[in-house]
Specification:
With about 675 residues, the chain is mainly alpha-helical. It is built from 28 helices and 7 strands. Bound molecules: zinc ion (ZN).
Length: about 675
């Protein structure tokens, strides 16, 4: 899931709102009152944003100077309402900044995001509000309310609210600076589309015919292959030319370089200073304090554990790939990183009978969308119907999620690439769901091929993964307080990663995996895919550990000690068998270094939990609606209303164990 830059801080800080007298719950700006049509020009967006922000400031001031004895109803509720209203605006701005087709609207949206984030920073550092919340007697309130208040007070403390005024002023400046620098970091990646120029169609030998046909030579007879995903990933997998793959990877891994060098330096320095001011040794310590892991040391030992589990599988896979490479290149001394995907694909085809080119003919966007919507409806007993509403682009589809007569959430699907659009795949939150106040709203922003064009199996997995975030957002968005919707960040990926398993279920995918002639993906081919599935898991996990180590290592020490290229190369050597790619500066386009900062490890942590949770479905059957509904109620719907460890334990009927994942990484399980 993508958490908007500064909202990442806010999600946790979630607690602010206001009235100068005992007030009924009220949302100054409801999501459904913000019409997209009112925001479709830069000017309209700016006017609206500034007017709303001014209203929020008034309420904030009223809360700061509120004279009475604060209670849940007269103080905490208005505080949360203000938070929700401001979050509606900042989430919408952040989303439009990533997807709007007009560049000036995107720029205005980014400005709006900064403006509202500044308000959140000020609220998070407000001593009067912190003191008022501290004085609230919540002992008579329900459990969720007590937990919400507890979380709010913790977030205030993590943010440095108890420091002196000079320190808080500096924290305020740094927070603002971090929002701005983070946006610049993301923008540099998003806007930097680069091209590999090829002289002849021969350079594309090995690629599927439809791929080549869709990329004809230009007037000068040159073929341009962009760094956008639908262009690059098939090329890495299929292009026969070693040179072409190498050059493309060098271009791909140099996106946003050198622009992001100074930007990243400033970002990690500002975060380091902020963490120290708030009383932490470094930013990694601050950002893990409210996670399941709890500390950078625990994260580091987790990464080392996973390195141990994958030791034998990585080496075994590497030897298989190297041996296969030598059949084509007898002189090869080692496998290079640009050969990885290509050779792995060959091994899958030759040794496991999985021809990924053939497989992709059975998948396309339209059918996958329908299949995924059907799966979710069947499993969780919900209905998905079109939602009549404005969107920001004609490609965007909108839907409502219903449970019987009741609408329980709304979402957008913006699924194909276009210029200036966020280039990865993610769920963008548009609005928190607050029970009896507003419905949860989210958007999937992806870059898949269109319509009935062939699609890679991995892209279908990504689609379902992102859809997992979406339904989590929908099911969780029915609590009374905004800060108990989202669970700990290192749990957030678990439901999505678990849902991916259904793409490995023949009953599920045979419904929609059909080629142009309407023939279903043959069972035999599917069985081969399953057999080949974990081939590459050892090396793939090591690649993830290298990213996690890069992310942690940029934030768990004094930035003055860090050389980006050296650190990235060091992590590649620590965790993978690949030599770092010559002349590449891959950290410059590693977008998570902003949004996730030190905590890229969360993917692996969540994966360990997802693997454990999935054992319940393995026991009961993947299409067992009763298990799915129990999971919906005990895990998804709980959101962040209790520590994740507690509700997962409740679902499993025993404590969480990482052993199932460890065994899978060791190659000792059937799946
Ligand atoms: Zn995810």
């Amino acid at each position: 899931m993508r958490i908007p830059v500064a909202l990442a801080v806010v999600l946790a800080l979630a607690a602010c709102g206001g009235a100068d007298e005992p007030a009924a719950p009220e949302l100054p700006v409801r999501y459904d009152a913000v019409a997209l049509a009112d925001l479709d020009s830069a000017e309209k967006l700016t006017v609206r944003c500034e007017a709303d922000e001014a209203k929020f400031r008034e309420r904030f001031a009223a809360l700061e100077s509120w004279p009475g004895a604060p209670t849940i109803d007269n103080y905490y509720r208005p505080l949360d309402s203000l938070t929700v209203s401001a979050a509606n605006l900042v989430m919408l701005a952040s989303s439009l900044g990533g997807v709007h087709p007009a560049g000036d609207v995107r720029a205005a949206a980014e400005q709006c995001e900064l403006l509202v984030n500044k308000l959140f920073t000020d609220m998070g550092l407000s001593r009067p509000i912190f003191e008022a919340v501290s004085r609230i007697d919540a002992s008579g309130a329900d459990e969720e309310t007590r937990y919400s208040v507890e979380k709010t007070l913790l977030q205030f403390r993590l943010g440095g609210v108890d420091k002196d005024e000079t320190t808080r002023e500096r924290i305020r400046e740094l927070s603002e600076k971090i929002s701005e620098i983070g946006q610049e970091f993301d923008r540099n990646i998003r806007d930097d589309v680069r091209y590999l120029e090829l002289d002849s169609v021969d350079d594309l030998a090995g690629l599927p015919d439809d791929y080549i046909a869709a990329r004809p030579p230009n007037e000068d007879g040159r073929i341009l292959i962009s760094t956008q995903y639908p262009d690059v990933f098939p090329l890495f997998e299929y292009a026969e030319s070693d040179e072409v793959r190498k050059e493309m990877l060098q271009i791909f891994r140099n996106r946003a370089y050198p622009q992001n060098e100074e930007v990243l330096r400033n970002l990690i320095e500002a975060r380091f200073e902020l963490a120290q001011l708030a009383g932490f040794a470094n930013y990694a310590e601050l950002v893990t304090a409210d996670k399941m892991s709890g500390s950078p040391e625990r994260v580091d030992s987790f990464l080392k554990d996973l390195k141990g589990y994958t030791a034998e599988t990585q080496d075994a896979e590497y030897e298989v790939l190297l041996a296969r490479l030598r059949e084509d290149m007898p002189e090869a001394e080692r496998l290079e990183v640009w050969q990885n995907s290509y050779i792995r694909s060959k091994v899958r085809r030759e040794q496991y009978n999985v021809d990924t080119k053939l497989v992709r003919e059975y998948f396309n966007y339209d059918a996958s969308r329908d299949g995924i919507l059907t799966l979710v409806q069947d499993l969780f007993r919900v209905q998905i119907v079109p939602w009549e509403t404005d969107t920001w682009h004609e490609d965007v589809e909108a839907f409502e999620l219903r449970d019987g007569d009741e609408v329980i959430g709304r979402f957008y699907l913006d699924m194909h690439p276009r210029e200036g659009k966020f280039g990865h795949a993610a769920m963008f939150p548009f609005a928190w769901g607050i029970e009896d106040e507003q419905l949860p709203v989210a958007g999937l922003i992806c870059n898949f091929p269109r319509g009935t064009e062939p699609m890679q199996h991995g892209q279908v997995v990504t689609f379902l993964h992102e859809f997992g975030h979406l339904i989590h957002w929908m099911f969780a968005g029915h609590h009374g307080w905004s800060n108990i919707i989202t669970p700990e960040w290192d749990f957030i990926e678990a439901p999505s990663q678990m849902l991916e398993e259904w793409i490995w279920d023949y009953d599920t995918i045979s419904v929609f995996a059909k080629n142009a002639d309407g023939e279903v993906l043959p069972r035999e081919l599917f069985d081969s895919m399953v057999a080949a599935r974990d081939f590459g898991l050892g090396m793939g996990t090591r690649g993830q550990l290298a990213y996690a180590g890069t992310s942690l290592g940029l934030y768990d020490r004094d930035p003055a000690e860090i050389d980006f290229d050296e650190h990235t190369a060091d992590m590649a050597r620590t965790y993978t068998r690949f030599e770092p790619l010559d002349g590449a500066h891959s950290w410059a386009s590693f977008g998570h270094l902003n949004g996730y900062s030190a905590i890229y490890y969360t993917y692996q942590w969540s994966k360990a939990i997802a693997t454990d949770m999935f054992t319940r479905f393995e026991e009961s059957g993947l299409r067992n609606v009763e298990t799915a509904m129990t999971y919906r109620q005990k895990v998804l719907a709980r959101g962040g209303s209790r520590p994740a460890e507690e509700f997962v334990t409740d679902f499993l009927g025993r404590p969480i164990s990482f052993e199932t994942y460890a065994n899978r990484l060791r190659g000792r399980s059937s799946q």
